[in-house]
C-alpha cells in the first residue's frame, strides 16, 4: 500500500487528498519543520506533500528511498532541491495555476485601498474623526498609470481586472515580449521607466538575487510622490527600512503589502503606520483555492503512481 506523508501546513487537507486517491492509499500527517523531521516521517513514504516553507534537501532524498514524488502545496518550488530529486528519479510537482484568481483580486483590492486612502480613513474614524479631508489628496485612478514588476500569469490576470478602470498599464519584465504584453493592453517598459512613469507599482516578481531589495531608496526616490506600492510577490524584494524612509519623506504616498521581509509584523518598520495596509500573506486564500490545491496535488500523485506525467511536473533548470 502506498503511503503519502503530508506536512501539517494549514492549506494541506488530508481528507480532500484521501477522497481523490481512495482508501488504498494511507495518508499520514506530520510536523516537518526541519530536515530530520522529514526524514523521520517520510523514510518509508511513497509520496511527500510539503508546504512552501518546508525545506526538502538532497539529504532527504538520500534517506527516503521509497519516495516517488514530492509535491509542493503552492506555486514555488525553491524549497525543494529539484536537481537532487532528479538524480534520485523522484518527480517534483507544484500547482502552477494555484490561486491566480485570488492573488489578482487581492492585488487590485490593495491597489484600490491605497489609491482611495482607505487605511488612513479607517484609522481616523477609529480615533473618532469624521472628516473626508483626512485622505487628501486623492486622484482619479482612470487618469493614472499602474505598473507591474514582472508580468507572469498573476500580473496578467491583475491587468485584465484593472482594464475596466481605464487606467494606463505598463510592465517591466525582461522575459516577456512587448507583443505578449500588448495582448493585455500593457506597454513594455524598462525598470527605470516603470519607476519614473507609473503612478503606482504592483510587485509580482519572484525572489532572486536580482530582485532582492530591488525597491531601495533610489527606487522609491524615482516613484511618484503620491504613488502606491503594492507587494503580492515576495517580501524581501522591498527594503522595508527604505520603504519607511520613503513614506516618512513623502517620496511615495502609501504601501499595501501582503508579504514582509520577515513575516512578523511587530518586527517590521512599517508597523502601525496609517499609510501602510498589511494583510497576513493571505492573497492566496479562498475556500475554493484551497480545495483546488489539494485536488490538484492528489491527481498529480495518482498520475505518478500510474506511470503517467503529472500536470504540475517540474524539471531541473
Automatic annotation (TrEMBL):
Pfam families the record matches: 2-Hacid_dh (PF00389), 2-Hacid_dh_C (PF02826)
Residue ranges constituting the D-isomer specific 2-hydroxyacid dehydrogenase NAD-binding domain according to the UniProt record: 109-283
Domain D-isomer specific 2-hydroxyacid dehydrogenase catalytic: 13-313
The keyword Secreted belongs to this UniProt entry's keyword annotation: no
Gene Ontology MF annotations: oxidoreductase activity
Regions that span the bilayer: none
Sorted UniProt keywords: Oxidoreductase
CDD domains xref list: CtBP_dh
Taxonomic superkingdom: Archaea
UniProt xrefs under InterPro entries: CtBP, D-isomer_2-hydroxyacid_DH, D-isomer_2_OHA_DH_cat_dom, D-isomer_DH_NAD-bd, NAD(P)-bd_dom_sf
Family of this protein: Belongs to the D-isomer specific 2-hydroxyacid dehydrogenase family.
PANTHER family referenced in this protein's UniProt entry, alphabetically: 2-HYDROXYACID DEHYDROGENASE-RELATED, GLYOXYLATE_HYDROXYPYRUVATE REDUCTASE B
Protein name, as recorded: C-terminal binding protein
Species per Swiss-Prot/TrEMBL record: Halohasta litorea
